[in-house]
From TrEMBL, chains A, B:
Record's keyword terms, sorted: Kinase, Transferase
Domain Cyclic nucleotide-binding, first and last residues per copy: 30-116
Pfam families noted in UniProt: cNMP_binding
GO molecular function: kinase activity
SUPFAM superfamilies: cAMP-binding domain-like
Domain of life: Bacteria
Gene3D superfamilies (alphabetical): Jelly Rolls
Protein name: cAMP-binding domain of CRP or a regulatory subunit of cAMP-dependent protein kinases
Database matches in InterPro entries: cNMP-bd_dom (IPR000595), cNMP-bd_dom_sf (IPR018490), RmlC-like_jellyroll (IPR014710)
Length: 193, 193
DNA sequence: AAATTCTATTGATTTAAGTCAACAGAAAAT
DNA sequence: ATTTTCTGTTGACTTAAATCAATAGAATTT
C-alpha cells in the first residue's frame, strides 16, 4: 500500500526504515470506487491525498454550468484543493475517482505533525509545491500560445498514460477545448501520418 | 529601503528588531532604470528579487516571435524565474523594469543561509509560494472560462494599480489577448456605462 | 524644435474554435 | 438480453477574437 509513496519520497529526499514506520502511522489508507468523490464542491477539503493506485480528476463548474477539469492525478501523484485545504475555506472543486483508487490521506494536523517528526518531509512537500508551481506556469504559457492541436499533442507527449486512461471529453475540458474540437484535431493528426 | 520588505514579512510571520539587521545583511540593494533588465532570456536567474519601488514585468518570446507577459511585480511583490533560479537552468524569460525600480536581491546562497538563521523566513517563503500557486491556479481557470471582457474587468478589479501603470498592450499580452481586442473591450465597457 | 518611436483607436476581413444537431458503437445498468 | 447512458465522430453554421492596415496623438530622443 505504501510502495508508490515511498518511491516518490525517495526520489526527492532521503528516507530510512524508521521513517517508513512513522509515515505509516500518519497516513489514512482509503479506497474509492469509480465515480465516488474525495471532495464535493462546497465542502472544506480536509485531506491531502496521495494516489497509490488509480486515477482521479478535480473539476469545477462555471456559472454557465460547464465543467472544467483542473487536474488529473495518477499513481505517484498528489491531489487536493490546496486553497481550501490550507485556509479551510469552502472548495469550488470536486475531486472524483475515474477508476477504483487506493489513496493515502493526510489531514492538516497529520501533515504538520509529520513535518515536525520528519524534517525531510517538509522539504519533500516544498519541492512538490515548487514543481507544481512551475508546471502551472508552463500550463498558463501553453494556453496562451498554443493552438488546439499543439495543446493536444504536447499533453500526449508529456502524459501518455493520462490520455489513454481518461475519456476524451475530459481531456478536452482539461485543455480548455470542446470535445468536437479534440475529435477533429485527432482526425487531422491521423490523416497527416 | 527595507520598509516594503519588512511590511511584507510582518503580514505573514513574526519579525523582531534583531531579525531586521540580519535581513539587511543578506539582501543586495539594486537600482534599475526603466527598460533595464534583471534577467535576460538564456541566462541563469541568480536572484530572487523583492520590489521596494517601481514595477517590472517578466515575459518570454514564442517561436512566432510574439512576446507574452508572464507576470507584473509592483512594490511589495517578489519576482524571479523560479524554475531557472531553483535548478540553475537557462531561463526562457526576460525580467525588465517598466519604471525606475529599487530592488532587494537574494542569491540562492543568501536565501538558504537566511532560512538557516531565521526559520520564520522559510515559513514566509513557503507561504508566498502557496499563494503564488493558488493565484496561478485561478489564472488558469480564468483563461479557460472567461471572455476577453471578463478577463479585462477582473484584472482591473484585482489589480487596479497595474492597469493604471502599464501600457495597454502589455495588459493585453498578460491576458492572452491582442491590443486591438483590449481597446475594443474598453470601448464596449465605456459605452455601457 | 523636429524627428522618431510608442501607444491606442478604428474599420474591414479572416480564421480557429465553438455551437447545434444527428448518428452510432461501446459500456453499464436493469 | 435489452434498454439506457456514455462516448466519440461528422457536418453545417456561427462567433469571438485575430489579423491586416491606416491613422493620430503622446512621449522620447536627438
Amino acid at each position: 500500500m505504501f510502495e508508490q509513496l515511498f518511491k516518490s519520497i525517495q526520489e526527492k529526499v532521503t528516507l530510512n526504515e524508521d521513517d517508513k514506520e512513522v509515515y505509516k502511522s500518519f497516513f489514512i489508507p482509503k479506497k474509492l470506487r469509480k465515480k465516488q468523490t474525495l471532495l464535493q464542491e462546497g465542502d472544506v477539503c480536509i485531506y491531502n491525498a496521495f494516489v497509490e493506485n488509480g486515477i482521479l480528476r478535480s473539476f469545477f463548474t462555471d456559472e454557465k454550468g460547464n465543467e472544467h477539469v483542473v487536474q488529473f492525478a495518477i499513481e505517484g501523484w498528489w491531489i487536493t484543493d490546496l486553497s481550501s485545504f490550507l485556509t479551510k475555506s469552502n472548495s469550488i472543486y470536486t475531486i472524483e475517482a475515474l477508476e477504483d483508487c487506493e489513496l493515502l490521506l493526510l489531514t492538516m494536523e497529520a501533515r504538520e505533525a509529520l513535518m515536525d517528526k520528519i524534517p525531510m518531509f517538509e522539504r519533500y512537500q516544498r519541492l512538490l509545491l515548487q514543481n507544481a508551481y512551475i508546471a502551472n506556469q508552463a500550463r498558463i504559457n501553453s494556453t496562451l500560445t498554443e493552438t488546439a492541436e499543439e495543446k493536444y499533442i504536447k499533453l500526449g507527449l508529456a502524459y501518455p498514460g493520462i490520455i489513454k486512461r481518461v475519456p476524451q471529453h475530459m481531456i478536452a475540458s482539461y485543455l480548455g477545448l470542446k470535445p468536437e474540437t479534440v475529435s477533429r484535431v485527432r482526425k487531422q493528426i491521423n490523416t497527416r501520418i
